[in-house]
Amino acid sequence: MVRLFITCWLIFGLHFATNIVREIYPALALGDQLSFRLDAYAGLHPDIFEKPGYGWHINNNPGVSFFAAIPYAASRPVIDRLVSVVNQSRAEPGKIEPPTYDSPWPLARQFYIEAWKRGLDVKFALAAFVMQFFLMAPLSAFSAVVMYRILQVVFQSPSCGIGLALLYALGTPVFFRTGTLNQNLALGILAFFGFLTLWNPTGEIKFTQRKKYFLAGLAGGLAVLFDYSGLVFLAGLFIYGWIKNRSRLARQSLLALTLSFTLGALLPIGLLWFYQWKSFGNPFLPAQHWMTATDYSGFGYQGLGFPQRDLLVLLLVDLRYGLFTSAPLLLLSLLSPIIDRGENRRIPKLEASFIILLAIGLWIFCSANNFSRLQYNSGVRYLTALIPFLFLLTAVTMDRLPILLRRVVILLAFVQAWALAMYRDVENSLGVFGPILKLLLNGVQLPALTTINRMQSALGDWFPGEISSVPILFLAGLFLLIIWWPIEGKANA
Q1: pTM for the full model?
Q2: Cβ distance 219 to 240 under 8 Å?
Q3: What percent of the chain has pLDDT over 90?
Q4: Count of domains for the chain
């Protein structure tokens, strides 16, 4: 399991993307000043807005930013020193204009110019890397280890569990989304942990029932702290836990478990209320209530209304961000109810039903959120929280495929997921085919190196000429070969 974790962590870290997402800003403010206010970053991101008297904040929940602030705060002595050295060198005569950033996207060029003028570009880059490498990458890597352990029990095969765990991590949009700080994937992983705590398929969780329900409530509450779509997971975990034990426990015991679940959920939700009170003056109204109006917020209540029929389709099959176009592998999960049934079923009926209903619930919720349409410029996002759950059903279906077909499916899944992780900013009209085409035409590339190569005028003294990804990937591959050789396929791999 250690080797699996190191493998995923290293590969995720190598594919760090330099996108400065909105969730980075609250982490910076917390790490720098223990503050929720983002006044220092006003005007740098369209999702940062001002409420008079309360300052600037992001228009979303801050959960993943709270966690990201921890590694950032720990790394501040190094980051601050490097930023100071760079900014002092720029104070020399003649260095008053920002260097050229050869990005194909005008907004990216504008952002770089403004960040450079404020002396924040290096800070943003280093902070984004720290948050990705020490939060997102290990979180996703750990979820792969957990997936391995679950599948090892489901299939009673250590080697099968390792292969499928790697497929989950590197053959789905988990790979793509781990490249940046992302609340959707993070909340899905945490909710998945809450689900496994209640299910306990391996029998390794020895907590009392009350502690299990407390932890499940904590996971559901954290999902809400990360994003309001987490309400679907919170409700789902509660209903699943109640149904799972209603026939075995007395009414008084069920009430005690409900109270434990509620207490666990209220801890992070209480933190969310505190954040909203300090940031906007009201603990219960969300950030979206106060944000500046946009083209998407006119629908329903600040963009949230009834499910929209076209979004129901787009969320699944849009070429730019559809779940099943971004990960055709997950289509196999739809066959699970037909294939995995009867006395020899691998996923119990209650758990399989929970996963299906949870997926439907989030799908409907996101179709009611008009901001789901914004995924056209960021790729699959809102439904990535379902990937850990759906992958369980996918794995069961894959086990029934002919071996040749299974190998073809696995190869295509790895190629597509790797292409998405490498080439993140291609022409929208090509959708998910754009990164694949780029991979075929241009070969392998690491996202951070793509950014560095576009900044030759700024970094030419340090990195003369374009940097190839091939030597780095070769060394990483050699390291992984060493730690995996010989491949024993044991449970402690």
Answers
A1: 0.93
A2: no
A3: 69
A4: 1
